[in-house]
Amino acid sequence: MNPRQMELLALVRSRGFVSVELLATHFGVTMQTIRRDISQLEDEELVRRYHGGVGLPSSVQNIAYPQRQVLNSEAKQRIAELLASQLPNDKSLIINIGTTTEAVANALARHRGLHVVTNNLNVAMTLSANPDCEVIVAGGVVRTRDRGVVGEATVDFIRQFKVDIGIIGVSSIEPDGTLRDFDYQEVKVAQTIIEQSRQVWLVADHTKFSREALVRLGHLSQVDCLFTDRPVPEHLSAALREAGTQVYVADTPVLVAQDS
After folding, report:
1. What phi and psi values does residue 117 have, to the nearest 5 degrees?
2. Cβ 236 vs Cβ 209: under 8 Å
3. How far apart are CA 58 and CA 257, in angstroms?
4. DSSP β-bridge partners for residue 247
5. What is the pTM of this model?
6. Which are the contacts of 250, defined by CB distance < 8 A and separation ≥ 6?
7. Got the DSSP string for the chain?
8. How many angstroms separate the CA atoms of 113 and 196, rounded?
């Protein structure tokens, strides 16, 4: 994905729908060039093409996992590093499915004395390389698309634990503070994690503020801390204040000019 396509995607996420003509004017390129960009983004299931323009993909189906792994990866890494800087050693955690929570696992590689329950095999593989971390993997059905473990057995397993902090990701945060995701089974696990955690820390990059998803997971009032990569939009600020959720915003990296 080139820089123009990344900015195009950001515009679509912020507005919901953008015409080809407006995009061509905005970027100073031909409509044919914009249509090629849209075609590539649609092939990657990041947008959906409509007559005369481009919009967000379906609210009932998430972006394919390989695309989510690379989408906003730098932002997810900064979010993860910020969370790791706030997390003391010697804590018990539950970490759920998601590419941002996988970035968190990478950022916790040097923490000591962690006891981690997870239904994410990618998280388990990462943290099991840390000799100072005990990893407990939830039982259940393994999804081949993302190595997430889901199902009633997973929910029952997680209910055995009460941890210091549950670290979760979501697909959508609505203006009223509602948290949503796409997969009902995955949502049931996340809801159980919230119930079994003394504190809940939510990781979500800025694109989650303008997405739509099908299944209600919970509400910001159940979240103690939100870690994100940009200041939250004004339409969400009131919900965060009312919920009492503490917001942590990762620093934007400074770009250093290269000598030519």
Report:
1. -100, 135
2. yes
3. 39
4. 226
5. 0.74
6. 75, 78, 79, 81, 82, 227, 228, 229
7. --HHHHHHHHHHHHHSEEEHHHHHHHHTS-HHHHHHHHHHHHHTTS-EEETTEEE---SSSPPPHHHHHHTTHHHHHHHHHHHHHHPPSS-EEEE-SSHHHHHHHHHTTT--SEEEEESBHHHHHHHTT-TTEEEEEPPSEEPTTT-BEESHHHHHHHTT--EEEEEEE-SEE-TTSEEEES-HHHHHHHHHHHHTEEEEEEE--GGGGG---SEEEEEGGG-SEEEESSPPPHHHHHHHHHHT-EEEEPPPPPPPPPP-
8. 20
φ, ψ of residue 249 to 5 degrees: the values are -115, 125
Residue 52: Cβ-neighbour burial (10 angstroms; 0-12, 13-18, 19+): exposed
| Residue keyed to tokens 């190595």 | 147
As given in the structure block, the two tokens for residue 228 are 């994100």
For residue 213, how many other CB atoms are within 10 A of its CB? 24
Q: Which of 245, 232, 231, 253 is nearest to 77 (CA)?
A: 253
Q: What is the pLDDT of residues 121-151, one digit of tens each?
A: 999 999 999 999 999 999 999 988 888 999 9
Strand partners, 133: 114
pLDDT in tens, 175-229: 999 999 988 889 999 999 999 999 999 999 988 886 778 899 999 999 999 999 9
What's the N-to-C CA distance of the chain in angstroms? 25
- Dihedral of alpha carbons 61, 185, 99, 148, sign: negative
Residue indicated by tokens 């503070």: 177
Burial class of 37 by CB neighbour count within 10 A (0 to 12, 13 to 18, 19+)? buried
